[in-house]
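Why run this: before we spend reagent on co-expression, it is cheaper to look at a predicted model of the complex and decide which construct boundaries make sense. The entries below are exactly what would go into the expression plan.
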Amino acid sequence: MKFIKPLILLFLIIGIGFFLRFYKLGQIPAGLYLDEAAQGYNAYSILKTGKDEYGKNFPIIFRSFGDFKTPLYIYLIVPLIPIFDLTKFTVRFPSFFFSVLTFPLLYLLILEISPKKVRYPLALISTLLLSISPWHILFGRTNFECNVALFLLLAGIYLFFKGLKIPKLFILSALFFGLSFSAYHSERIISPLIVFALAIRYRQTIFNKKNRAVIIVSTLIGLLIVLPTLSVISTAGFASRATTLSIFNFSRIPAGFIPNIPPPFNFIINNHLVLSIKEFLSLYFSYFSPRNMFYLGDSGPRSSFPELATFYIWQLPFYILGLFLILKDKKLADLRFLTLIFFFVSPVPAALTSDPYSTIRALPLVIPQLIIISLSLLRFFRLFKPIYLKIIVFSVFILTITFSLIHLYSSVFILNEYFRAKDWNYGWQQVTEEIKKLDPKLPIVVDNARGEAYSQLLFFLKKDPLTYQTNNFEVTPNEYYSNLSRQTNKKIDQISVRSIDWVPDTKVNQYLIGDYLAISQEQIKTNKLQLIAEIKYPDSSPAFIITKTNPE
Amino acid sequence: MKTKISRLSKFNLFEQFLLLVCLSLWPVSLMLVSTNNLLIYFIPELLILAAYFFYYRKISFWPILFLCLPFTNIKLLPLPLLFITLYLFFNHFKKLKLIYLFGAISLLIIFLPNFRKQSIFVYDYEANQSLIRKIYLYPNIYLARFSQNKINLYFDKATNNFFGLIDPNNYFFAFHPREIISTNHNLNKYPFPSLIFVLFGLYYFLKHPQFKFIASLILGSIINLSLLNNYDLADFILYLPLSLTIVYGAQVMKQKNQKIFYLTLSSCIIITIFELPRLFLAR
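The model came back. Tokens follow.
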């Protein structure tokens, strides 16, 4: 009976979280960002041919736009395509699925590591706050690998704590830690650091003579899973991403650089190391800053919702109080240790890159920050002893959650759709629907001056991967990870994806497609183009223009 | 680490000098950007410093100095009332003559129209238009009114200020190094290693001998500055309470762990020496 009440509440919380992530999953955000399209089409290509868009057999990391995407998410989409077809829903489904699975996992983890006194209420409050968290919802509704990686990381941690009692579970724990390493870039730093911290803290139990065999097997399994990723670690492709983003890349100008300082003084005034360390620390502390957490949120239009930060504003006092509690209350034992480790380690990979407050890269931080808020919320609830006061406080809490959900609805389903449609590459689906209506005998030129339009065309037109691979050679499979040269012009049947060259292109009878910057009203007039269709953003501004040339 | 602080460590003359050097960044950077109206920012700070000195020496008329603040900078009009109210609150409405409270209220009533022009309540045409545009996006009027209303306009400005003022990055990294806020000078305020002293100071803040004065001043100043249309440079009012927190954190740290104290102090000095010439060159 003791377990039934929390279980009912847990199912209710999972239900709320499920609804907030599943409602209009394939429709909102309305567009399909190029990364989502690329992941979806590469999965489709793997399904049909066993090769990615460049003809590489089952890649370890996906070349894609030269950004070398982590593989796990793409492979997770593959089995979904025969079930749901190649749709926006399909490419977002793994993120949604693992996001919902994170609720029971967090609940179990907190039950496992918390002191008896706070166990159930803390687990329930934390899970509830996670289920309504704008930060977690955003990445649970869109195609981002970080949510899958977070689930795997938490699973690894949970099984590790279970393994302290049932050592065989260390093997499973290693499996999940290894998978998280391959699931997202940030976890390549976070997972080893957390494993290291756990191993140090619980060394006496782990390195017990009885567990020797299990630990060896676990280590081998962990290494086996990360081995493919490690095998490409020294390639130019793998390194290029790290060096482009890293603030310690000495070829970039550091933040705070003062120009025109003569050489002997320049070394001191613009000391690269000091400026980079300052930038790193500034970025690192920005992840704990109430301004970013409760007011600004992520500045990236696709990694935030309008008028909504990563946490709700009412959680601020509980965050500050919770920080004090978690630092002070040593009775919290394992919970305190894990929360603090998670708290301090999670922003490290994000702080190494130059983007300020990158919520994608720092997603694991949502867990310790919510535990901290939940802890102080729990203490706050316990301040009220008489039953009538408890009822009042609980009612106020429910009311606050309701207001938060209304605010969330306004931001996610109304403002985001209206103001951020362009950022979500809205309009390509409509473009492809129009392409299907065009004369199939005439060539089509799609302008790609701004973006990698070919990925969305391939996705929505579901073009045959084998034909595409044959017609669009970029590198040989041997040079897949090392040759960074790119072929920006693409050929998809009668469609050429390239920049429009006005003089020769208007002399041929063909269709020209581009955004309002590529094909302006002035150009339509000057080049006597025939307007076939105009696709507009939800705010009625022009998104794409489809025209036909008039060579005569 | 024991949380009990029996007697705070004292600094020798050299340590005092080093700490003073570390605390010099904000005044210097302020001087460099506001040469024309420097006194508007420095006189209130001197008045607060004098009030703190008298308070420390238990000279009873110290609150009068707070009542002089609005005469030096109208942006600080609410501060006397906020400070005195908070101070009374922390002392369970004892130890301070209510005459000061009436004085602060009178000042607020007299100068309110002048303050309003500098506050978040000044009419913002752009924000109002944007609000109207957003209202039309909602499926029904109740949801529109709940999500987009005029109170939100003021609340949003106040929260923007508030979160800027409580952001540690504002004081130790001039916000983010690549973040330029159009209405802010992004002044370099403290060397970033002194953040360790602040965190230490805040952790033991409740045990600070002048806790009530400093807490009232910090809270009062933050509320006052949050109400301004642009708090930039006026936030120098926070210099004294923040510096006192840094010094207190340093004192506690020296008592708890001398090695870490000297390491942090040395890093503070190195960074201050690095930052000071940069302030002049970046002008």
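The CA atoms of residues 48 and 66 of chain B lie 7 Å apart. The two ends of chain B are 44 Å apart (CA to CA). Bring this page to Monday's planning discussion.
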